[in-house]
Structure formats: C-alpha cells, structure tokens
Specification:
Helix content: 25-40%
Largest sheet: 8 strands, mixed
Oligomer: single chain
Strand content: 15-25%
Number of helices: 15
Radius of gyration: 27 Å
Length: 473
C-alpha cells in the first residue's frame, strides 16, 4: 500500500509540473483556434515582427511571391542555396504566419530574414530600434534587385515558358534581325505594391500642359496637415493634401515663347518666356496592395524631433477613384452627365480633378455621402457586405480597397514599440487579431479603427458592378 501511495504522489507531482510549465492541454488547443503564430523578439525586432504580420495579411502579395519563386524550384540548386534568396525566405515566413503551412510552434523565429538581408548588404541590427516603414522599403527594393539580377532569357529548365509561343517582331521592336527568345512572365511582373504617380504641369498664362511625368512608388507617404479646431482629421484630408496643387514660379514655357515669337518679324530673337505653372500629383497606376504611411515625425522650433500622436480616422473600406489620374479627352454626353452627378455628390471633384474641399463645399454640420475616414457608422455593416449597398444613388467605385492590417507605434521618437492589427487568415474573414511579438489575441473592428495608425495595408477588391475576374497589374 505504501508503494501505491508513493506512485500516486509521484504522478500527482508530475502532473502539477506539467501544468505549471505548459498549462492545461485543453486550454492550449482552445486558445490556438483562430489565431496565428507570434514572432520571437530577438532584441528590438518588434519593427520587423509587426511588418511581417502586416504583409502576411495580404494574400495578393503571398501569391506574387509564390509565382516569383517558381524559377528556383526548377533550377538545379542545393536546398540550402534557396535560403540565400530573399523571396524564398520571406515566402516561407508569410505562409506560416497566414496559416497556409501547419506548424506546431506558437512562436516563430524570424532571424533567418535578417541573415538574408545581411547577405544582401543590408546592415540591420536586431539590438537597435529600427523603423517598420524603412524595413518595408528595404524588402521591396531588395525584391526588385533580385528580379533584375535574373536573366532576361528563359532558363533551359523552364519547360513551361519554352513551350509558350515566341514573341513576334510585330509585338516588340528590336534592333537585331534575329528572332527573340521567349521571356518568362514571372520575371517581368512587378510586386503588387508597385504603383505610379503622375506629375502634371499647366501654365497659368496660356494653359498649356507639359508632358505628364511618371514616378514609381511602393507606398504612399502622407503628411498630416494642420488640424482644424473642432474637426476630426481623416485619411481623406491627408490624401487631398498629398495631391493638392502647388504653384511653381519662374518656369520657362515653350508655348508662351512660341506664341510671342509668332507675333514678331522674321529674324528677330526673343527670350524664353517665364511664367507660373500649377503642379499637381495624381495616382497614375494604383497597385493591387496599397501601403499608406502616415508621417508622424515633426520638428520643434528648436530643431528637436517630435512625434505627432493625433488620431487620423480611416475606414475598413477605402475609395480611391477621385485620386486616380485620367487622360484628358473629349467626353460623351453620358460621361458628362455622370461627371456632373459626381461633382454634385462628391466634395473636392471638379473637371475630373480632385482638390482640397473648401468650407463652402462642406457647410458646417453636413457630411459627404462617402468620405474615407469620415463616413457614417452605417457603412460598418455586417461582415461580408458591400459598404455602399445602402446608398443606391452612389455609383460603384472602380478602385475600392479593403483594410487588411494596421501597424501602430507606441512611444516617442526615441523609443517605443510596434504592434499590429491584422485580419485572421481567410478570404472572407471578419475576425481581427492584435499581435505584439509573441502575444496574439482577438480584437474588434472598433478597436482597430480607433488605433493611431502608422502603416495601413489595404488590398483592392471588386465593386458590385465589376466582373469577378482576377485584377492583376
């Protein structure tokens, strides 16, 4: 009997030790359901962990990485050589964080990403505080460098591309007389965060428009305009401020010079005519995945850096149609009627161009029909419903985006901590998660929209009137 008592006591002590170390087993299974793995903090790597959680909530970016890395699967490389590629390492991490690969670990170690970046000559210390937005630029630029390093001709082991028909001379011009080799599509494609800005210059004197210039971007870095007392700051205010026109003085206008020269006698010389131009930025090409960076750095009168803590209101859905550049041209009667209705219902729209809404356009006490970051709470409907369905008079937007993740920075300019709100994996998921390194818990949409966002990750979705075909750029 004494031996049975000793055995029972030992079993009880063992069970108590297991409970202290790991907790109740049933509780662990219940707590893991619907959550995602956390990421180990390697010193001060919350900036990297928060960014990875945000990127893993963008399915289009993961699909692009899968297509991008198909070249390595056909190459005769050693398995450990694959880890030298940033795209492969990043894809493996994002697949696990998006629950596309099953893992028994509650916490992952992302030190492999830092090692690959160091191999690409990026000196990023895990013990120094870094910026999540800067790391985002490092990742996108490194992926572009990796793509550009690949051969422009098809690899001999890429059987799928070799079976495709060759590009004819009618499709592309080339100085050589020989036939052109087929080019693999996945090396030509841009990552889904790639977009283009348009810069438009118009002379105020003769209204001559200079050729439109294009610049690429992988994120929109928006400054926060000065707040107006009694009015909330919205994401639309930041976007309008970004594309608002500005005057550029003392610019040579070729058209004004030409007009002036036509009125002079032959042989007389004329100086270049300098006038004032109006410059405006617009979005020439909107990406599939849109990263918005809210600039919270400001400077005091003494030159010391300060952080802006004010809340910028944003919505679960984002309409970007009014910020899209449209090629000027003759309009049909139906287009003119649609444009007139749009100008009457949407503040800041005139002649197809978006401008900063004035006080006259927004009388006190009135609300626009739809404004990003300032719409009525009725837009926040049940999960899966279209946000504009309640308003039959509102046209279906073409460039509609859905919020996927929000990166928040707590602290000041000298120290702080990054956390992430992100959607739980699933195409129609309405469950939000709050993640701080290893800690993962559920969150509500109200908690997400109340956060002081630093980075916003949106992904383009289809409007009601659009066909359900993949939207790729």
């Amino acid at each position: 009997m004494r031996s049975w008592g000793m055995l029972g006591g030992a079993a009880a002590a063992l069970a108590a030790g297991i409970y202290v170390l790991w907790g109740p087993i049933t509780g662990r299974k219940r707590r893991r359901r619907g959550l995602v793995p956390g990421l180990l903090n390697l010193g001060n790597t919350c900036f990297m962990n928060s960014l990875l959680q945000g990127l893993s909530s963008c399915p289009s970016f993961i699909r692009w990485l899968e297509e991008f890395t198909t070249q390595y699967r056909t190459e005769q490389e050693k398995p450990n050589e694959h880890h030298q590629h940033l795209s492969v390492t990043l894809l493996q991490l994002l697949r696990v964080l998006s629950c596309q690969e099953v893992t028994e670990d509650d916490v992952l170690d992302a030190s492999c990403l830092l090692e690959v970046l160091r191999m690409n000559r990026w000196q990023i210390s895990s013990f120094e505080e870094q910026d999540a937005h800067e790391l985002f630029h490092v990742l996108t630029s490194s992926l572009e460098d990796e793509r550009d390093r690949q051969p422009r001709v098809t690899h001999l082991f890429d059987v799928h591309s070799l079976e495709q028909p060759e590009i004819t001379q009618k499709q592309i011009s080339c100085r050589t007389r020989g036939s052109l080799p087929p080019v693999s599509n996945h090396w030509k494609s841009q990552h889904p965060f790639h977009g283009r800005l348009t810069s438009n210059m118009v002379c105020k004197h003769c209204e001559h428009q200079s050729p439109v210039r294009f610049d690429t971007f992988d994120s929109l870095s928006l400054s926060i305009p000065a707040a107006v007392w009694g009015r909330p700051m919205t994401l639309d205010h930041c976007l309008h401020h970004f594309i608002s026109s500005e005057s550029v003085k003392d610019v040579v206008c070729d058209n004004c010079t030409k007009i002036q020269a036509e009125g002079l006698l032959n042989g007389q010389s004329i100086e270049n005519q300098r006038t004032t131009f109006v410059k405006q930025l617009k979005l020439g090409k909107l990406p599939q995945c849109l990263c918005i960076h809210l600039q919270r750095l400001s400077w005091s009168n003494q030159g010391t850096p300060l952080k802006r803590h004010e809340h910028v209101q944003f919505n679960e859905f984002l309409v970007m149609d009014i910020y899209k550049y449209r090629v000027p041209g003759p309009k049909s009667t139906q287009e003119q009627l649609s444009q007139k209705n749009l100008e009457e219902t949407t503040p800041g729209i005139k002649d197809g161009r978006a401008g900063k809404p004035s006080d006259a356009e927004q009388p006190a006490g009135t609300k626009p029909l739809f404004m990003n970051g300032a719409s009525s709470s009725s837009f926040l409907m049940s999960p899966g419903t279209f946000p504009l369905a309640a308003f039959s008079e509102c046209r279906s937007p073409l460039y509609l985006y859905r919020l996927m993740a929000v990166v928040v920075h707590h602290g000041d300019m000298h120290s702080g901590h990054f956390v992430t709100f992100r959607r739980a994996p699933g195409a129609r998921s309405s469950q939000w998660l709050w993640i701080s390194d290893e800690s993962v818990r559920r969150a509500s949409l109200h908690e997400v929209l109340a956060a002081s966002a630093y980075l916003l990750f949106y992904e383009r979705v289809h409007g009601r009137a659009q066909p359900q075909s993949p939207a790729r750029h």
